[in-house]
Amino acid sequence: MKNPLLNIENLSISFGNKEVIHHISYSLERNEILGIVGESGSGKSVSSLAILGLLPNKLSSITSGSILYDNKDLTQLSNKGFRGIRGKKIAMVFQEPMSSLNPSMTCGNQVQEILLQHTNLSKSNAKEETLALFEKVKLPNPSRIFGAYPHEISGGQKQRVMIAMSIACKPDILIADEPTTALDVTVQKDIIHLLYTLQKETRMSIIFITHDLTLISEIADRVLVMYRGEIVEQGKVETIFKKPKHNYTKALLNSRPSLDTRLKKLPSIQDYLNDNFSKEIITSEERQIKHKTLYSKPPLLEVINIEKEYFSKSGWFSKTSAFKAVDQVSFKLYEGETLGLVGESGCGKSTLGNAILQLDKATAGTILYRGEDITHLSNAAIRTLRKEMQIIFQDPFSSLNPRIPVGNAIIEPMKVHGIYNSYTERKAKVLAILNRVGLSENVFNRYPHEFSGGQRQRIGIARTIALQPKLIVCDESVSALDISVQAQVLNLLNELKEDFGFTYIFISHDLAVVKYMSDQLLVMNNGKIEELADADAIYNNPQKAYTKKLIHAIPKGL
Question: Is 529 in contact with 523 (CB distance < 8 Å)?
Fold first, then answer.
């Protein structure tokens, strides 16, 4: 590597007295896409934020090393010195566009502001350039989005606005930090393709950060693997993917559910590093025997022609318009079954789940639970039903009260539903449940902010199972988790299903995860059912073009 565009040498970063990045060295070539992969806490984002001088000054410090760009050591620059570099020479696309975009400014003005600050364009020319950028990133109806606020457009569109903003000044380097993590598999594919196309057109260099090695293989030229603040392996993407040397790299590749075989237990990173995992698979014969038993009983839940309609007005004097989020959906769910519910954002998955749980009542149709119609129950009857039907949310942090210790958050619904007779009994049961979901007893008196995402999801699961429900709706409950933590949570859900006889509706946009978890698979599109059949049958032989598109969008690796 003769003249790299960016050269990082022996970089160490500390937060207080704790060193979190340990003497890492790597370079970024001109016209190259470099992938950085690893779990949360591996140091991917921290080391990349250091490039732009975005680490918190009072909390962190660069204790050794250099970051050389354009013959300048960026570690020596002041905030003022970074102003000519940030956005103009080195730009960044963040993981969560909603928190990165200003909610009080229109999307067009936010991109226009960058151009006015870093170029000599007039306001009218800056607007023209912004509209051209919106076309370049393939935003539909650029003029409408120019005047729209972030909350008025979809997640994928917000991410495209962020990309338009980051490439506005034609930077030499674009840092994309987990830009597709919480997006639909199809939108993810579109964003990956967009970044790849833009890189080829502009010849800028990209640092693409993710926890998904399979995803990296679809875009990167080279990849480096980070673990606990160190680079454990780096090289060409083909070499790392096909002949990984480090056990951690092998673990990352094997933690994601396979599309071809169904392991009885997914290996976590630690399982792999300790060489302590089983390769035992669930055969198609075993599935058939299990399904024969499952489907010989009456259904636990029967959904008949459910509809959910929303009404909106665009102005004071405009007509009310109707939108069917769920349209004539019917299916049966059997005790002990996992029904996978898959589709893109806006297809009606979560709306259907909420209607079943009576959190947002259906407009039409019938929902039978144990043979009883639950669509017209009184509030008191619904409260009783809550014990039997529970939900695990996508974001456990926002579903936990930040001011209540974890133990009390689990005890509270037990008390409401009269489970056990005293605080002492309930506490003993909660401690047992925390242990069952892989958490220690000292968790009881701690607060939600003290835990990682995976730990918070386990707390959410503990609170759900404390009520001893029969039916659990898992609404995107692993989509924002690291690939290894995801494996642990999926294993836990399957174990709890076996131990307690749970029945799941498993909602996700990730078809690989849904296929692994599910007995039957229900594919939704625009509020309607596209396909409903055995999960393996749909994956092996999809009947509808929409299902084929979802399957085609799954990152497959090299």
Answer: yes
